[in-house]
Amino acid sequence: MSVITAALGGYAALGIRRAGVLVSKTFDESLMSINYARAASADFAAMQVAFARRWSATHPEIRVKLDKTIADLEENLSEDLQIAAERSQSLRAARAAAEVQSAADTWSDARRHLPDNLSLNAAWEALDPYAETVSEQIDLLVNYTAGDGFTYRQSARQQVAVATDLALLGTAGALVLSGLVVLLLSRRITKPVATASAVAKRIASGQLDVEIPAGSADELGALLDAMRTMRDNIRAMMEREVAQRRTAQVRLADALESSREGIVVVDANHRIALANSQANEFFGNVMGLLEPGRSAGAAAQSNDLASATLSAEGISPETEEIRLPDGRWLRVSRSATHDGGFITVYSDISVLKDQEAKLKTTNLLLDAALDNMSQGLCLYDSEHRLKVVNRRFCEIFRLSPAQLRPGIVFRDVLALSVAAGNHVDVTADELFAQESPLIDQRIAATRFMELSNSRVILIARQPTADGGWVATYEDVTERRRAEERIVFMARHDALTGLPNRVFFAERIETAISQIGRGSSGFAVLSLDLDHFKQINDTLGHPVGDELLRSAAERLHACVREVDTVSRLGGDEFAILQAGLEKPEDAALLARRIVEILSVPYEIEGNRLTISVSIGIAVAPGDGMAYDKLLKSADVALYLAKADGRATWRFFEPEMDVRLQMRRALELDLRDALANNEFEVYYQPIFDLRENRIGGFEALLRWNHPTRGQVSPAEFISLAEEIGLIVPLGEWVLRTACAQAATWPKYIKIAVNVSVVQFKNDQFVSMVTNNVRAAGLSARRLELEITESLLLTNTNATLAKLHQLHDFGVHIAMDDFGTGYSSLSYLRSFPFDKIKIDQSFVRAMSDKDGSRAIVRAMTAMGSSLGIRTTAEGVETQEQLAWLRAAGCDEAQGYLFSRPVPSNKIPRLLTEWNGLKREAV
After folding, report:
1. 2-6, 541-545, 581-585: which has the minimum mean pLDDT?
2. How many CA atoms lie less than 13 Å away from 528 in the CB half-sphere?
3. Cβ contacts of residue 283 below 8 Å, gap of 6+?
4. CB atoms within 10 A of CB 684
5. How far is it between the farthest Cα atoms of the chain?
6. Which of 169, 198, 517, 551 is the most exposed place for a label (fewest CB within 10 A)?
7. How far is it, in rounded angstroms, from Cα 735 to Cα 730?
């Protein structure tokens, strides 16, 4: 009985031990492996949350901190998987743990290689396949470890069942003998084993709140204690996993709420599952619009942005841009989720849009600036590839913009330029060989390039910081020509192109330096065109300029190549006659010049005849310095003019004396007005119809303190030359008007006006002011002008004449018949009087037709209603004939010579009283 009992007890004990081992494997190892597998799943979920926060974060410190969190979670994941593998009960579970580790490593590696410019949605979508693999492997690991636990649990139950059956059989066999023993064994073994089996089932099914009774000190008690410890550990791990999952969810929610991107998640039922605050702000913070659980279709019907992005059709998977009513721009992207829903991400790109607009505007301005530069521009990189070229470069080198695409190398650009014909007898390789050293030096430099069509291009090259270089190309052809022209003009006359005074002086100095070194002497000819000023004043400066150019051409044709013709200014020319053997050679040249320049000129429809006066100085006899020779030639020129012009004279020492006398006269003339040396004389004008003196002509006289009375023929022309005629003429007018105001009211006063006076802008106001100041009636004043005045700026002249005529002043044409005598002048202005020149009156006794001319003039004046006055009447015969011819007035020595104002009363008494009837 004891042996049977011992055998049965031993067998039962062995079965219980084996069951305990199986239970221990089931609960202590398999369930621990399951818990660590689930811990690994929690670690991976935390890694995903940290990745989402890190990808949404913009602050570098936050991103670094989250990177460290991910690294720590990766290490925890690896440790949990290692423990799960160690506690696993099969090779497949261990392999599954290794596959989880491999998939997690692959996910981490893919995460590290994601581009930084991806959006969160795109990044999440890129990692989603790897995350799915990790989740699948974790699920396999849990399933494998759970299956192992179930297997060992079944084995334990079978072992218990077998042990129980054997114990029952043994008990039945020894029931009689060992009833008490069986009862004790039932109490001590069967009940604890059943309890342990029931607890194991409940724990295996996940009921971690099961109560485990306290065990005894034997193996069953140890087993129950181990099961209690295992239950507590599993419960703690599960609670920790739940807490970690909740923390991860909170962190994900915080990350979504703090994100500057709006995120809306729609589930498979097309209902809004999640929407962060930024999304609500983009949608206008409409109450309840994005409330979780609401139909996305309903939201789409009440909001334009929702309609465009949350409708069933939605937007295409590609990213699109939408503009909000407030002007902001959103970049919207939508991606599908695995459960059939989708996630829409909204990013505010307003700043980016503004930057793009500004960049576009800047680029447009830069393009406009480049295309409107006066210089060509090319920008090359460090490998000599063209990056930027403007329109002006293509124009300069006659290239098509289509040929100069960005990326073309510098040598090919040179080849295109050669092909365009810009370079003669040079290849692209030769040009590149010339340019390469300049480029490789990497220093700023400029150089000139002359093209085949004689254009000159200024190239300025500047290295850039990236190893490339920029070059500008400027067409300086006109500038170079202008510079050459400036150099030429500095030494030549602008009007005629002849050497100017500076160049002429250099040539004379050179000729002087060669005297005595085998070179003979030379002559300096000073030329002045006779009466050129009259042509210039009457026909205008354009005609005068053309006459100067024509004269210069004739002068140049008169000399040899070794001689020099120069224009010194105005109508003054000079000639350097080199290699002079004898003075007669200079005389021959002067004769040839006088003859050739006197040939008539045809200029703008005018046939002009002009003469030239020449003064000659011979070196070395007349001087060995430029100033001395030119002065000597000028003195000889003055003598030639004094001798009647149209001739030449050699310099003689006594000529200088005459020139000094003229200069002294000029100095005295300048002081005469201030010294009250001038006096107005008056010559009577006899009215043939009223048979009395009807007026006086004011004539200027100069009473010099040492020279005596100087003839007007000596100083009037000089006064015009030096510009003194304007103030002098005003003084005569003022004096004559003041004097005439004291005469009888029927007596008129006539005053001569020169061309120089009349051209003064203040002439009209000067006349009117002086007439008013004298208290003289304007109708008593006659202004005598010559025909030459009407040849200068006709419109302006006629305007002034009409102003004076409207004021009341009478206008008389003096010396009629001696000038151009164009009848158009008489038709263009209503002259009050014409004065027949004295040369016709004196010649009336000749048989040259002067009487007929005078008769024609008086008849013409009568028909036009213009009074006629005959000048130079000296005899009664002349007076009688003029009266018979119908002349209105007479003036001459027959009546009186010019007299001072104090003798006028006597003349009036004499001619308007005693002699009136006798004349």
Report:
1. 2-6
2. 20
3. 262, 289, 290, 303, 305, 306
4. 26
5. 213
6. 517
7. 9
